[in-house]
Structures are given as C-alpha cells and as structure tokens.
What does this fold into?
Amino acid sequence: SVPRPLPYEGYNRSAAKAIKQNVGIPVIAVGGIHRRAMMEEMLANGEADAISMCRPFIIESNIVAKLRKGKQESSRCSMCNICGMSIEEVPLRCFYGKLKKPS
It folds into this structure.
C-alpha cells in the first residue's frame, strides 16, 4: 500500500478560499477535489471560480461528462499517486484505478 498524503480530500480547499477572498481575479481550485458535491459547494460558496482536476482524467477521460449527466458522483481515482510516481519510467496511466476509493 502506498501512503496517501493528508489531509486526503480537498487538501487545497482552504488555500483556494483564502486566495479568493484576497484577490480580484478568478481562482481555480485543485487538489483532491473529486466529488461533485464538493465541487458544487465550493463554487456556490464562492470559494473558487472553477475546479481543476488531473488524476481523475488519467483514470477516466470523460469524468466531466459523467458528473454532469449524474452517472457518477465522484471520480474513481483512489489518489494513490502511483501514476505520478511512475511517469518518468512508463507512459502516464492509472495503475490502481479499479481499486475501491478509500473512505
């Protein structure tokens, strides 16, 4: 098992909110934001103007369409980070995407 960084979900959320409160330009939040509910909450609360994702696109390139259509409520990404650790050795891909996302 690969250790996961803590905090696990939405680890840049408070930083995005603080930045948004102190600048007059659009803020894009990134970092462990994989659930549709969190995305909608952050946008509705004015914590960010947009949400960016990386790892969710590695496992499922059509994640945005799935979220919009209500086919999924979150990405299947387990946030194991093995995709990023192996990028220098092999083509970018998800290695553990079929594992159940930890609670």
